[in-house]
Amino acid sequence: MTFITNIKTFAALGSGVIGSGWVARALAHGLDVVAWDPAPGAEAALRQRVANAWGALEQQGLAPGASPQRLRFVSTIEECVKDADFIQESAPERLELKLELHSKISAAAKPDALIGSSTSGLLPSEFYEGSTHPQRCVVGHPFNPVYLLPLVEVVGGQHTAPEAIQAAIQVYESLGMRPLHVRKEVPGFIADRLLEALWREALHLVNDGVATTGEIDDAIRFGAGLRWSFMGTFLTYTLAGGDAGMRHFMAQFGPALQLPWTYLPAPELTDKLIDDVVEGTAEQLGSHSISALERYRDDCLLAVLEAVKTTKAKHGMHFHD
Ligand SMILES: NC(=O)C1=CN([C@@H]2O[C@H](COP(=O)(O)OP(=O)(O)OC[C@H]3O[C@@H](n4cnc5c(N)ncnc54)[C@H](O)[C@@H]3O)[C@@H](O)[C@H]2O)C=CC1
Ligand SMILES: C[N+](C)(C)CC(=O)CC(=O)[O-]
């Protein structure tokens, strides 16, 4: 079974936060991009998002011929996918919607064009159930902003061919990404299970009046957040065990897991909790607009990526090590 991996035309369905991030990444890699989104005003919003991202992409380096002008917005699903070499769906996170959309996408697409879904945690076996040629269908779960963050989790469903997983990994690599094959199909995959655990605890801390949203963000950004950009939890905690390493760490800090410090179930999303979170984050945002904050985030990310790359090289490592 072979699938198209040398892609020239990228199709994006759904052009909100994530779809527009894919569009910007694909354009920056010198591809032709065709996009579709049913919302009124979607084309203008997409072009605005791409323009907002373009400065960061220029700083990172564009592929020869890369241009926002190579984006074509079309009015039907069929027109969007029929000539595409690779298709990425970024529609709202609703199982029924994705199920119906994928039956239309896959029926109109070339049979050897891979189809990826940006879902954050729905199961591909479920939403590709009605798809034509489901062996080429995968999840390619990205991270926001998609045009800068390298990670993409690649997950297959029960009908996905192993060759399709490998081919999708190849395509995502050609877009400058760092694919992580999630070998077992589980809800939330790997990264969102971790992120959701943190998010749940953060909401409990607000709900219990322990800290404001700003204080919780400070607890992350001045501490673990800084080290997470180059070293994950396991290696970090190996160092926390000193010369005795992980075995000593487990003996010393493992029992605290039983105390417990954390709650597993999520807090109830009461109106008060939602108001506290919305008002807290509005205060953090201050007078900055969302697009100004996006540009600030992108500048920080570019600087961090560059610093990590250079420091690793100094220690004889590659960025992906
Ligand atoms: N926002 C995030 O941080 C992340 C989201 N994702 C996933 O990406 C997908 C899209 O999420 P967002 O971009 O955040 O949502 P969004 O709400 O920003 O964008 C969704 C877009 O889909 C469009 N849409 C509505 N009905 C549609 C249909 N039937 N077919 C195609 N498009 C349709 C909407 O008009 C909208 O532009 C979801 O599956 C989500 O789980 C993945 C990683 C991160
Ligand atoms: C909140 N979220 C589940 C949509 C987050 C993601 O899927 C990944 C990210 O960018 O944090």
| Low-confidence parts | none
Q: Between the first and last Cα atoms, what is the distance in angstroms?
A: 31 Å
Q: Helices and strands, in N-to-C order?
A: EHEHEHEHEHEEHEHHHHHH
Range of helix content:
40-55%
Strand order of the largest sheet: 3-2-1-4-5-6-7-8
Name the bound molecules: 1,4-dihydronicotinamide adenine dinucleotide, ligand L46V6VHR
Mean pLDDT: 95
Shape: globular
Strand content is: 5-15%
Structural class: alpha/beta
Tally the beta strands: 8
Radius of gyration: 21 Å
| Sheet with most strands | 8 strands, mixed
Number of helices: 12
What does this structure look like?
Homodimer. Belongs to the 3-hydroxyacyl-CoA dehydrogenase family. L-carnitine dehydrogenase subfamily. It catalyses: carnitine + NAD(+) = 3-dehydrocarnitine + NADH + H(+). It is found in: Cytoplasm. With 321 residues, the chain is of the alpha/beta class. Helices cover 49% and strands 12% of the residues. It contains 12 helices and 8 strands. It has helices spanning 17-28, 42-60, 77-81, 95-108, 124-127, 162-174, 191-207, 213-228, 233-240, 245-253, 271-285, 290-314, and strands at residues 9-13, 32-36, 71-73, 86-89, 114-117, 137-141, 151-156, 178-182. The chain has an 8-stranded mixed beta sheet. Helix 2 packs parallel to helix 12. The two termini are 31 Å apart. The structure holds 1,4-dihydronicotinamide adenine dinucleotide and the ligand C[N+](C)(C)CC(=O)CC(=O)[O-]. Residues 13-19, 37-39, 42, 90-93, 97, 101, 118-120, 141-142, 144 line the site of 1,4-dihydronicotinamide adenine dinucleotide.
